[in-house]
Design a protein that fits this description.
Strand content: 35-45%
Number of helices: 3
Number of strands: 7
Helix content: 25-40%
CATH architecture of one domain: 2-Layer Sandwich
Largest sheet: 7 strands, antiparallel
Structural class: alpha+beta
Distance between the termini: 49 Å
CATH class of one domain: Alpha Beta
CATH topology of one domain: Alpha-D-Glucose-1,6-Bisphosphate, Chain A, domain 4
Order of helices and strands: EHHEEEEEEH
Oligomer: single chain
CATH superfamily of one domain: START domain
Radius of gyration: 16 Å
Shape: globular
Strand order of the largest sheet: 1-7-6-5-4-3-2
Length: about 160
């Protein structure tokens, strides 16, 4: 079996809300629909138990391209309220998906950091698709998320 190339996406955003409010919003999987672009066709297909816990299984459907629907199963593998949680793909479009959500309190807000490590199926063919399709679409999803969150919560004004 060929070795998969591991990619990384990092995003940081300072939001004008306290860490507990940030946690309350991001720990609720139903809010994913509010911050995901409509063109992705993101739908939660399971009841989301509360509160979030390690071992929680969540199921979704995404439609990354017209006519193509993927069923996506993730597990919440680590939770330390209100500082971080990790979701990992169990079934879905990626060969590997590990997404860290980290929240750091700041004076006047919270710094939210996302670190996603991911690998694609289909070996060398995927490397071509990554540069032309996958990475630009992931960037667009996180750009949309950034804009929606800034509009919803405001940008924290952190003194330098």
């Amino acid at each position: 079996m060929e070795k998969a190339k591991l990619y990384r996406l990092d995003r940081t955003q300072d939001l004008a809300l306290d860490i507990h409010s940030a946690w309350s919003f991001f720990a609720d999987p139903t809010n994913l629909c509010r911050i995901t672009p409509d063109w992705l066709g993101f739908t939660i297909t399971c009841p989301a138990p509360e509160p979030m816990y390690a071992g929680q299984i969540l199921t979704y459907t995404v439609k990354p391209f017209p006519g193509l629907a993927w069923h996506w199963v993730t597990e919440i593998t680590h939770v330390r309220e209100p500082r971080f949680f990790v979701d990992e793909q169990r079934l879905g479009p990626y060969r590997f998906w590990h997404h860290q959500h980290i929240f750091d309190p700041l004076p006047g807000g919270v710094r939210m950091r996302d670190t996603v490590h991911y690998a694609l199926p289909f070996g060398p063919l995927a490397r071509l698709g990554h540069k032309r399709m996958v990475r630009p679409r992931l960037e667009a999803i996180f750009d949309h998320r950034y804009d929606v969150l800034a509009e919803r919560f405001g940008v924290a004004q952190i003194a330098s």
